[in-house]
Design brief:
Elements: H1 3-15, H2 39-53, H3 70-81
Helix pairs in contact: 1-2, 1-3
InterPro entries: ACP-like_sf (IPR036736), PP-bd_ACP (IPR009081)
Protein name: Phosphopantetheine-binding protein
Organism: Nonomuraea corallina
Length: 83
């Protein structure tokens, strides 16, 4: 697991999994299907990506396909870093 992937997994586990839920997040946990990403949690994730990771996500990339799981988000971040 890359450092970016680990940071994303940790963020999702600590900030998006509801308290009391025993879900253990990994890079392939389906974020949308599982209900972990709703509009408020997506905003928190986007803020984390912008402030802590240093990669703002442009509106054109706000597609559910880019936020399926941590691996997909990590790929999006790598893509945006290379632009």
């Amino acid at each position: 697991m890359t450092e970016l992937t680990r940071r994303l997994v940790d963020f999702v586990q600590e900030n998006l999994v509801p308290e009391g839920d025993d879900l253990k997040v990994d890079e392939t946990t389906p974020l949308l299907v599982s209900g972990l990403l709703d509009s408020l949690r997506t905003a928190r994730l986007l803020n984390f990506l912008r402030k802590d990771v240093g990669v703002p996500v442009p509106a054109a990339k706000l597609d559910p396909d880019n936020f399926r799981d941590v691996a997909t988000i990590a790929a999006l971040v790598r893509e945006l870093r290379s632009v």
